Amino acid sequence: MISKPTPIPIKDRLSLVFLERGLLDVIDGAFVLVDKNGVRTQIPVGGVACLMLEPGIRVSHAAVVLATRVGCLLVFVGEAGVRLYSCGQPGGARGEKILYQAKLALDEEARRKVARKMFEFRFRESLPESLSIEQLRGIEGARMKELYRQLANRYNVPWKGRKYDIKNYSAGDLPNKCITSATLCLYGVCEAGILAAGYAPAIGFIHAGNARSFVYDIADLFKHEVLTVAFSVARENPADPERSVRLACRDMFRSERILKRIIPTIEEVLASGGMKMPVLSEGFQPVAIEDPEGIGDVGHRS
User: Is residue 2 in some structural domain?
Assistant: First the structure.
């Protein structure tokens, strides 16, 4: 008897691939990018966590269906990946996990505990209970400025401060371009991890009021790693800094096993809120037609 194939777990996948100028389609059973000359480039969609789709990309219905089935996040970004316009759901969130996440975010004390845990994770130290979230944000801002300065000195990169215009990426200097590109790569990977884990990108604890508030929360926990990549690339003064940063981030995500670390980190910071996961079977009307058992990570659709 032939066993049912199982997808590659999100933690073991290639982090992200950038694509531009072509048609994403499924042809002869293969997920391919077709350029204007009809040349097909096969994409191992089941082994990629996130496809970053730049201007010039068109996507067929069949490609979206296949990407969803194998749990690959499709993210529509601007040129050089400097704006994030929209994204699909590789698997979608889980009901009990969204309720758990929302319950933590709506309870002031639980939210404070989760936010504090996030700051402790970033600072790598325990913090006094007397500090408010606003005070922690102030400490964070000062430490980030110092981190930028230290990295600029370490890599001998001229640094005039973090200044960028998301609407005019080309106006920034080289280190700021590299930082922006690296940060957006991180956002894509973190969103893929959040969705794969079954949580909602919009329900944040430090950030709020944005469709990706939780993405920004989780990305901040790993931001120091992509900043190192950004400054190391800036030191080389490449002709195409965006591409150089993407490749460097891809290699770092793989070597540091970022995807493998994201989901356990999410679970750890949420657990600090001190609440239990709800059990949806209690008091709810059962569904009429059960979904088939999922074949991927916990948040993936069947």
Answer: no
**CA pair distance 251, 228, nearest whole angstrom:** 13
Strand 73-77 relative to strand 48-53: parallel, antiparallel, unpaired? parallel
How many beta carbons lie within 10 A of that of residue 58, not counting itself?
12
Q: What is the pLDDT of residues 20-47, one digit of tens each?
A: 999 999 999 899 999 999 999 999 999 9
Are residues 213 and 103 part of one domain? yes
Q: Where are the alpha helices (DSSP H) in 124-164?
A: 133-154
What's the pTM value of the predicted model, to 2 decimals? 0.81
Q: Find residue 74's DSSP bridge partners.
A: 51
Domain that holds residue 53: 10-87
Kindly state the tokens that stand for 281. 């079977």
Q: Where is the domain boundary, 35, 67, 87?
A: 87
**Range among 39-43, 130-134, 166-170 with highest mean pLDDT value:** 39-43
Same domain flag for 214 and 68: no
Would the pLDDT of 14 be above 90? no
Do 254 and 144 share a structural domain?
yes
CB within 8 A of 9, min separation 6: which ones?
296, 297
pLDDT at site 283: 64
CA–CA distance, 237 with 244 (Å, rounded to integer): 10
Per the structure, the count of domains in the chain is 2
Identity at 143, one-letter amino acid code: R
Residue in the block written with tokens 């005039």: 160
